[in-house]
Amino acid sequence: MDDCPYKKIDSALDRFQEAHFWTHMMEEYYHAADPFRWHLNVFLKALKEVPDLIQMALQNEAGFPTWFREQRKQPSLTSQHNFPEHT
Questions:
Q1: For the whole model, what pTM was predicted?
Q2: Largest CA distance in the chain
Q3: Burial class of 73 by CB neighbour count within 10 A (0 to 12, 13 to 18, 19+)
């Protein structure tokens, strides 16, 4: 089990599972505005932390820092580039 490739990113996978948990809570509170919003906020926070946890875990792997830096430059789903401009 020591050579398991996922062992190094264990904390990132845990945070991803946490985000998954919060999606179920959002489903449960879909019709209650405040609890839904609270669960949405913690879901987004948990999901946002996953790339940072992966970066910290793999920063000493050969070639990873350069590759990851390039990936972070790509527009994400939440970047302003994906939303239409107001006219």
A1: 0.75
A2: 56
A3: exposed
